Fold each of these.
Amino acid sequence: MRRIEIGGASPYAVTVGAGLLDTLQIRERQVALIHPDDLPRTFVERVQAAVSPVVTISVPARDACKTLEVMAGVLSQLAQVALPRDGAVVGLGGGAATDLAGFVAASYLRGVAFYTLPTTLLGMVDAAVGGKTGVNLPEGKNLVGAFWPPTAVWCDTDTLETLPTEVFREGAAEAFKHGLIQDPSLLPRVLAPEFRPGGALLADTIADAIAVKAGVVTRDLTERGERAFLNFGHTLAHALEGVTHHAVPHGEAVGYGMHYAARVSRALGGADLTPDTLAFLRWQRPAPLPALRYEDVAPFMARDKKADSDGVRFVLLHELAHPYLTRVPGDVLREEFASWAQDVAALSRGQAGGPTG
Amino acid sequence: MRRIEIGGASPYAVTVGAGLLDTLQIRERQVALIHPDDLPRTFVERVQAAVSPVVTISVPARDACKTLEVMAGVLSQLAQVALPRDGAVVGLGGGAATDLAGFVAASYLRGVAFYTLPTTLLGMVDAAVGGKTGVNLPEGKNLVGAFWPPTAVWCDTDTLETLPTEVFREGAAEAFKHGLIQDPSLLPRVLAPEFRPGGALLADTIADAIAVKAGVVTRDLTERGERAFLNFGHTLAHALEGVTHHAVPHGEAVGYGMHYAARVSRALGGADLTPDTLAFLRWQRPAPLPALRYEDVAPFMARDKKADSDGVRFVLLHELAHPYLTRVPGDVLREEFASWAQDVAALSRGQAGGPTG
């Protein structure tokens, strides 16, 4: 079992290991449990046995739960059972459900305690750490939310064994990203055969990937500086999600987006990291994208949270583990988009022809 | 012109005076202006001239704007104009509109700068100070929101001159409450003839009432202690609003609620402050209440934010300016409710017979 401390004004710990769902301890007496409706029933029952929730709320799976409408229904259920301000919200499931649960916890009675039990690789490596919570708007992803650090995070690696392979590989994008921006030792490990549910490299690789984010978040709790580096690959990723109405899963969008950011980095004089990002895409085998023009994604990139009054800012890499934040000229964005689209099309053709990884 | 400093982690100042709408200075370049649709057009135009908003959003008047549905529409409008994270939200209007605008500012892109320009007495004395923002649920008032301190608050006393008399008197409840819990010099001033729009006592009385809240909030920014005293009279007030679906205006509900809290205080051995709370009600002349049984309001009191796992907590007064927080036995609540209802009915009969103040 590994334990990673997150610092800042509201410190907490992330615990990574097997069998954690059965050993939860929650200080608050009244607890609301929120989980996606496609979660294996046994996970829900194990948590119910451990914390005896006063209400268990099932929400739509994946991003379908991340709407203000779903949130309104969940909040009403909390009010109907009169969950008190010294109660707690427990989010069990993937990153979408825990993002929603966190924003519910942040907003109900102006804030109650929040616990996260991520059951996907993406949820463990990304969504569970950092205090970001929120929902989507029709206009774009994660445009509404709050910074609301959890009281504790438990990553039970047993829960990954029921994940479909493509969902596990989707989630590896964030671990690979943490390798690119800070800990290169993660790159070969993420691509290794033993990085799989039940595999020998699983728990330590997850814990080390979490540790990258934990360090960044501890040093920068409100995203004024270093924390923005965690968005490497995310500007195009959010645009791909927005333009396809979330048909592209987040981790696959990040895989595609990292390759675009690697291309833009190289175009602005950085080291060539495109072999790494292509190797990851070959390993991840994301679903092919629909045909997209630059004009389709550009408005979504301009609306990204990293945009300010002066234009679109990008996280780029000087070289491995040396990220920086910069404004990128529109002509570079457009040109690299065309080349990126060719790379992606070639990748899809290769996959259609059979395994390439 | 009076300036009141609010301390804490995010300090800011409240400025009280005439003509402030024309002299606003906002650091952020892109500003969204939110106001209720019944606000005098000239107020909106003066603020537009001062800050050149990129979007001006009109929302339903009073509590009709404090819903998650209205909030979703406002957030979408901000996303459609791509208000950047270094932009700002300006809330102009009564406490309901500024509560909504503040929660929008707290949530959009996980938080942008917020400015408040209250145009009602209630908004100036109560809603504009303390960083409480939020909306209602069908289950009760202010059950969703965030603590989100503004960057600055401007109280232009000229805006009170267009307020209907009954709305001005409604808002005086919070100023009177600040007198009861901390600054007894406010009590005779609130009831004096020169406390009226354009009157000689107006600006200083408002500023002194704000100063009470400013002091409390500065000392206790997350409502773990002293800040709860600001809820004197509010447990029944929120129940009256809930059971009547907000037909009772907040300030009138607080007027009624203060008298109930004064009764309960006396029943538990405190000084008799019911002559003061009755004098205020005679001055305020609230609309008569519908017939209510204790069973009608009790569930709403149990759902109040001050309720925790151990029951309903009340703010009571040992004597003038000596508030305390305690749990009240249910039989006392029930008995005093019956007596309170008699007082209130007598008051309404007196008013029906002609002016009593």
Amino acid sequence: MKKRLFTPGPTPVPENVMLRMAAPIIHHRNPEFVEILSRVHADLKYLFQTEQPVVVLSSSGTGGMEATVTSLFSPGDKLITVNGGKFGERWGQLAKTFTGNCVELTVEWGTAVQPEQILEALKNNPDTKGVLITHSETSTGTATDIKAIAQIVRENSDALICVDGITAVGAHEVRFDEWGLDACVTGSQKGLMMPPGLAMIALSERAAKAIEASKTPNYYFSLKKALKSHAKDDTPYTPAVSLVIGLDESLQMIKAEGIENVWKRHERLANACREGCAALGMKLFSNSPSFAVTPVWLPEGVDWKTFNKALKSDNGITVAAGQDEYKGKIFRISHLGFYDELDMLLVIGALEFTLKQIGHPFEYGSGVSAVQKAFLS
Amino acid sequence: MKKRLFTPGPTPVPENVMLRMAAPIIHHRNPEFVEILSRVHADLKYLFQTEQPVVVLSSSGTGGMEATVTSLFSPGDKLITVNGGKFGERWGQLAKTFTGNCVELTVEWGTAVQPEQILEALKNNPDTKGVLITHSETSTGTATDIKAIAQIVRENSDALICVDGITAVGAHEVRFDEWGLDACVTGSQKGLMMPPGLAMIALSERAAKAIEASKTPNYYFSLKKALKSHAKDDTPYTPAVSLVIGLDESLQMIKAEGIENVWKRHERLANACREGCAALGMKLFSNSPSFAVTPVWLPEGVDWKTFNKALKSDNGITVAAGQDEYKGKIFRISHLGFYDELDMLLVIGALEFTLKQIGHPFEYGSGVSAVQKAFLS
């Protein structure tokens, strides 16, 4: 049976990227690799829409978040975080671990924090050194208006704006320089269509200054060292060579499509996915939907394990389960990275097969027809 | 021209490992991946000759060293390190960064620390919490007698024994349990014949207890979380999926050869490499040679840049340069990982071609004939 992945990381890796990584390994001090890393550094600037450095770390995205917290801030620095899902919660855990001073706003899962809430928190905490937010919260499929929040933070505070863009970069509009962000993290196994193992962080001049001043002990995740090496198209420690080479390949694909087209495609796919699910009688989970992943409530009376078994074993489709208290209640369909219109038709079609198999009543063909209409309208 | 890598990391990756990693990506929560990780966990125990857990982190080997320091020790803990090269120096830097209390022994580059020196340092510092040592110091091609040092530490102290086995594991005899080690780190791009991007750490029961008690702030590199996840054949954060799959393949190769045979092969290759170099009139750098990498002095009157250009551009061979004050004075030939007898013949042959090209006098054929004799004796 054909197996197809609709998970928000790992996401499918194009064959040309896989095969490029299967070429004989080269040494990271060889001119050939330096040329590749130099091109990757340049193309990452395009991806983040920035003229400022984007460093590459060999770790998962969480490592990139840790590097941001330990490199930009010092023990005692007050950080505002927003807990509206697993990954916003993670910013909070990192802040508590390394600066020990975290003001954590809580928003309901499936809801985005509003700029006014950030403004209020800043007014109540004028000594805030950083605002750590999640652009696309993967656990809830919810997108936050980073542009508006960045504007409000800039107008009212000197706090650094640090964005978890792990499932946003390459799916949602991200304009690092224009929006005035200070740090934005992503991971390789998301919009970049790569296996996991690399984290990328765009860093502003303000961030670079903060990095110079930071007193938090760090070593592997020192962005001070990363920036210094970046200037020479180098890395402080042995990079994940094969993954950097794959990244070079996937960045060429993004450049060829054009970043604005990549963003529009994700918006289109997300919209069609939502239409398809709704037509099958599935309630949407988020009131501010991400373009990377669509979480939907399981239809009333449908058991998650039975449903997922039929979807996976009989139809070869892997989707993501709900997390924490939404385990067994929602599931998440990813359209992040290497997906097109026909993939959305395919996954909604597979949902129809699955619902039919487990005997859940719905109008056969209504999902796929809604997907088609969404694309053609 | 055929390109051939004789560097101590990245080391050559076998084609079957590369191709295995080029298969369609799978999700890390899929039963298929859990099965692979479970087998990797079991086979890593064989590699380290231990019954205790070996955790896998997505980072370079340095990340594994940082995880060891921040997870086993607390701020203020006194650690003994040995600076006899770049990587022993790194243990010291990590100790200074995270516990702030480091007794650093210095030994000359190319010389191994002696058990008596460790004993003396322990006697002078009875409050030592950990001894951090380098098994095979890559920068100097020097091997340290870890078995003897571990014995002396155990007999005279409660200090934890932490070993940088990055270029030793899969090259030198390592018997984690029998020798009573507490932590041993390796990296994927070394004896494991893989691209860089994974660190592996074997951990003793004593280490696990220390991990429970540690007060150093950490997150991504928390071995407490890593051990907890390991027990369920899981990882705390998204693992570098494709690299773990490649590791499964390379561990099968090591098992098929047999770990004792792998060690013996490395000893044989290192010996032949030394004989070949000596026959060409090159002085050996280390007085306690590693089986992973052989550093040799450039012959008198030979310029490193001219030599390396001829070796690389005309003969397709990449070796490693000398580091720090030995830049331009020594070079290092690796035989770590996927190498056999004929590779040693080949690399010494290439050295002969190169010396001939740059007009350095030597007896043509003497190097390769010494290699043959070494293998046949």
